[in-house]
Structures are given as structure tokens and as C-alpha cells.
Amino acid sequence: MKKVLTLVLIFVLVFSFAACGSKEETVTKLTFATGGEAGTYYAYGTVLAQYVTANSDIEVTAITGNGSKSNVEDIDAGDIQLAFCQSDVMSYAYQGTSLFQSPVDSFSAVCALYMEDVQIVTCDEQIKTVADLKGKTVSVGAVGSGTYFNAVDVLSVYGLDVEKDITPVYQSFGDSTESLKDNKIDAAFVVAGAPTNSIVDLSTAKQAYIVSLDDEHINKLVEISPYYSKHIIPAGTYGQAPEATTVAVAAMVLAADDVSEDAVYAFISTIFKNKAAVADGHGKGKDLDDNFASSVTAVPYHPGAAKYFSEVGIKVTTKK
To answer: Is the peptide bond before 195 cis (omega within 30 degrees of 0)?
Structure first.
């Protein structure tokens, strides 16, 4: 009898351990590429990853990223499952234009979270317009980055060539603001949601100014590239007195097509059904809006995102 009881006990223990192991194996783990540590992508992405992990049945790990183009390439390579990306770069990837020599179609849109401002930052109060950048040393973002192409777009509508009319340097947001602190450059393009950590840090050391774009050139830019829209950076965002007028693109979350519908649904629904809690973790959470999240149509949405949007009465296009 003792042998029988012992065998039964062993069987129960083995079954229990197997069940526990099976439960762990069913947890979906997703890697979420954000951006550099000095930018909004990283700070906000980390908050989102931690919140979703704590409040859903999936585990999301936020990692630093090397920009929108790199994030798309990493999804395509199968190295990550989720990523931040500028809406214009997302479209370039899907169409195989500008930054991309051929189309990349291994990803789908999840949601738009907030607007990313094209911020032209300077500590030189004599630089008041984009035209004043002529002959100056300007950081235009890393080579091949979304920021670089935004800089090219903005400068070109003012008749300025990146290689001929300015002295370009190719730096990350953090390096750009450090160079501004050290007077190594005259201005820098920073494309991120305002307020941006690196510019906030700069403004604690020196007076930072955001160069405004005028309506004539904004309208010309939007006509050429409809990914842009006019956007206002409120007065006092970086201690500057007047508001700044610029253009912006949408900050998108992308997902690899092979991520399950349930996992993407868990990610987006956990965020958007708990907007106030997310906003407590990061200021950009205040921009969460179902209609805006589903408004960028250049790339089809992931089925998991479509499931969430359908629950709030919004129909989005998915891949056939």
C-alpha cells in the first residue's frame, strides 16, 4: 500500500510540475523596439511595455532602437515583434521608396499614439527662421534615419540643400543636444514628441529656442508630402516664451505579421482601455485616442488591432 501511495504522490507531483511548465510556455513574450534613451520612444515605450506586462497575459520587453528604419528592418529580420516607427517611414517601407529600395510587407500597423514634432532646436537667438540656417552647422539626424529625411524635406521647401547650403553633422538626439551645449553646432533637427527629454535637459543648461515654420512653406510641404500636418508646440514647453509652429508625423506602433491576433489585441486593448493609468506613467498617454489611433491608413492594420477597433465602433483595413 505504501508503494502504491508513493507512486500516486510521485505521479501527482510530476503532473503538477508539467502543468506549471506548460503554463509558463503559453505566455507570449514580445520584444518592443523603441528608440534612443534620450528620446520619447524609449521613455514612453518602456512605460507601455511595463504596463501591458503587469496588466495582461503577455510579456512585453522594451529595448532601445536605432530609429524607425532600423526598427522596420529588425521586424522584417524576425529579431523583434513590436516597434515604434514614424508614419512617413512606415509608408516608405511598405511602398519601397525613399529610405527603402524595395517594399517591406512583413508588418502591419497597430495604432498611432501621438504626433511627433519636427523640432529645429537652437541656442542662437539670431536663428529665427529655417532660412537662417544657411551657412550654419546643423545636426540632421543619423544617416538614413527618419529625422534625416524630415530635415531634407523641410530644408528643401525653403530652397536649402543639405549638402550645399549647410554644414551637416549626423548625430542622435542626445549627441545633438550635447553638441548644442558645447557650442559645436548651431542647430539640430529632433523629431520626437514634445516635450523631448534631450531638449528638456538642454534647456536646463542653456536657453533653447524652437525655430518656427511659416504657413506658406508648411502648406507647400504638406502638398508635396501629405504625411505631414501642421502642429503647435505650446509656449513654455522648453522655457521658450512664444509657441512654435512646425509640422509633425504620427508615432506608430507596428507589429510583425506573424504575431498572433490575441497577442496584439491584448497589447492594444490593455493600453487603450486604461488610458488614464497609462497617462499617469507618461505624459503622452494623455494623447491616446481611438479615432486618432486608427486614422493612419497608409499601411493595413494587424487583425488584433482591428478586433479592438471594432469593439469601439471603428472599422479599419487589414491585409486580405
So the answer is: yes
Length of the chain: 320
Q: What are the tens digits of pLDDT across the range 147-170?
A: 998 999 999 999 999 999 999 999
How far is it, in rounded angstroms, from Cα 12 to Cα 19?
A: 10
Q: Model-level pTM greater than 0.85?
A: no
Q: Tens digits of per-residue pLDDT, 254-300?
A: 999 999 999 999 999 999 999 999 999 999 999 999 999 999 999 99
C-alpha cell at 120: 529645429
CA distance 170 to 137: 11
Is residue 95 within 8 Å of 225, Cβ to Cβ?
no
Distance of CA 160 to the CA centre of its chain: 27
CA distance linking residue 73 with residue 100, whole number of Å: 10
Count Cβ neighbours within 10 Å for each residue of 35-47 and write b for 16 or more, e otherwise.
Answer: bbebbbbbbbbbb
DSSP class per residue in the chain = -HHHHHHHHHHHHHHHHHHHHHHHHTSEEEEEE---TTSHHHHHHHHHHHHHHHHSSEEEEEE--S-HHHHHHHHHTTS-SEEEEEHHHHHHHHHT-TT-SS---SEEEEEEEEEEEEEEEES-TT--SGGGGTTSEEE--STTSHHHHHHHHHHHHTT--TTTTSEEE---HHHHHHHHHTTS-SEEEEEEPSSPHHHHHHHHHS--EEPPPPHHHHHHHHHH-TT-EEEEE-TTTTS-SS-EEEEEEEEEEEEETTS-HHHHHHHHHHHHTTHHHHHHH-GGGGG--HHHHT---SSPBPHHHHHHHHHTT----B--
Neighbour-count burial for 50-86, b at 16+ CB within 10 Å, e otherwise? ebbbeebebebbbbebbbbbbbbbbbbeeebbbbbbb
